[in-house]
Design brief:
With 176 residues, the chain is α+β, with helices and mostly antiparallel strands. The protein is built from 5 helices and 6 strands.
């Protein structure tokens, strides 16, 4: 489990660094000590926990209320990134909730944070009893995905969410 926390901390620091200006790389052979990862901000973690609770209550628009108007939603298997609350709800959240109406989304371990970014591991489980996007019929197969999300929270709203998981595993579990 420690290895996963270290991975999340490194990935989150990379996510945060993408927003900052490039710094000069030290030329000495001794690299500076890494900065400690800040603990998750209580407000940001509460936003994420509320968002996940809305997923678990199977209410796509309640989940969407946690998004900023111009949220950017990236999901590894759902096609191009979605910009804006309505697009994110319609093209990602509702698709999953329709396809797996009994979904259960659980955070695994404690989230890590730096700046306005929060990263966490998760498991999404349930049974595919509803159709997917583009008319892909239900397979009635059980789904049990493990993944990681990178989220940015500003002013109590999710402004960016990226969900990363193994799409091949999902396809195999669905029998595709």
């Amino acid at each position: 489990m420690h290895r996963h926390v270290v991975f999340l901390a490194i990935a989150l620091s990379m996510l945060t660094a993408c927003k900052q200006h490039a710094e000069t790389v030290p030329t000495s052979s001794t690299a500076p000590a890494p900065k400690p990862v800040a603990p998750p901000t209580p407000a940001g973690v509460q936003v994420i926990k509320g968002y996940m609770a809305a997923w678990n209550s199977h209410d796509s628009w309640s989940a969407g209320n946690y998004f900023a108007d111009d949220v950017l939603y990236v999901d590894t298997t759902m096609g191009p990134p979605q910009r804006g609350r309505e697009a994110a709800v319609e093209s990602v959240v509702k698709v999953f909730m329709n396809a797996v109406p009994d979904n259960k989304w659980e955070m695994r371990g404690e989230p890590v944070a730096a700046g306005d970014g929060i990263a966490f591991e998760w498991t999404l489980s349930g049974k595919n009893t509803g159709s997917w996007a583009f008319g892909v019929a239900a397979t009635n197969q059980k789904l049990n995905l493990q993944g990681v999300s990178f989220v940015r929270v500003k002013d109590g709203k999710i402004v960016y969410i990226g969900n990363y998981y193994d799409g091949l595993t999902m396809n195999k579990q669905m029998g595709w």
